Sequence to fold (497 residues):
Amino acid sequence: MDTLLETEKLANFINGEWVEVENTTAVINPATGKEVVQVPLSDANAVDQAVASAQAAQKQWALVPAPQRAEVLYRVGNLLKERKEKLSQLLTMENGKVLEEARGEVQEGIDMAFYMAGEGRRLFGQTTPSELKDKFAMSQRVPVGVVGIITPWNFPIAIATWKSFPAIVAGNAVVWKPATETPIMAYELAKIFEEGGLPKGVINVVFGSGSTVGDSMVHHPDIRVISFTGSNEVGRNIAAECGRQLKKVSLEMGGKNAIIVMDDADIDLAVEGILWSAFGTSGQRCTACSRVIVHEAVKGKLEQKLLTAMERLTIGDGLDESMKVGPIINQAGIRKIKDYIEIGKEEGAKLLVGGHEFRDGAHQGGNYFSPTLFTDATADMRIAQEEIFGPVVSLIPVQSFEEAVEVNNGVEFGLSSSIFTQNVNRVFQAQRDLDTGIVYVNAGTTGAEIHLPFGGTKGTGNGHRDSGVQALDVFTEWKAVYVDYSGKLQRAQIDVE
Fold:
């Protein structure tokens, strides 16, 4: 057991109590292959208990004034700040991302706590004139009830805060299923909620598999919202079942994000943006750049500068501050990346560098894959269409800005896009025409800020957004309220003079 973690076996957190589960599985540090902790594999009964706890707690929590609910989030934010370094190291141990990235992720949680706490004094509705005399009309946000959140392993604390904090400040109670690969952040965040004074039952953490715990949550009639981040296949199944139940559902799924490099771009800056976007978190981000759409006039120059920069990347255990690229989460991820390397070769793309696993020396025991660059890819190749979720990027040459936009939009996803250019006219055309939920100009495809909506178009999601004030739309219903002080019955539309 690592001294940062006070237990060898995690437990569920239900109704403010730590509930042990007999059946467990090991959490493996992807950088070393060593066990970090045992995580429960809960059954459907645990979900039932968590939902019952949440239902009872939510009725009282909804009656607490929203500014008072926000005070809990302020305390949670301060506790996250106090423990930022410890949390960052634990995150790197379970997830593998390098320490500077882990610190950035914890900071997202801190920022989200304070931002959503501020919404406790807003949660704005609208007042509007009535069409009748002596009548008042307004709308207000009200909580939905019990919310189910299902979060992935690649951002185990940031995404959880995007979902849980707006749900809680809006007056809901939460049942949370974290990824079994990265449960430690959920354990630590539950402790922080407890210390921050959140009433028992408002947050419940149930560890376990998606096929058991996740499925039970999706089918549970008393969970009225499912907020899910993960694969398209699972997301589509969740949407189908939630639709059958008329249950609200928010989906944030895949991406096949591109950086456009025009002929007037600052090439050195573009290289920096590509490196960070493609190889940060070892490419295991829904916003990772896996396509570079480059104007043919600067393709050769960009290619050479990118190859030179990639040679300087250091690959290893993320707890070593000199490392820039950490491991892949598990061997299944490695196998998927290897399969796509072979697909790219068979399709005719030229492999310039990488394409192999590291298994010896300092990398022994871990899941390390070399940063990989294909060139002369075409827009219709599978490596240019399908999400790989690894440190693999493909250069696609184009002849014009219009072709670049067409290639960018010609995938099933629509999460993030980027353009490097110094032409202000093209900047405004790009932000209008690029069919993605996030557009960056002269920056990479990653780096979203918590006060703006996060999500995408097409196959990336179903129209809802995490983060920003728009996240409140997922976790609230709109209620229209009419107050007639005329002292007589007035019939809308009929009695309008």
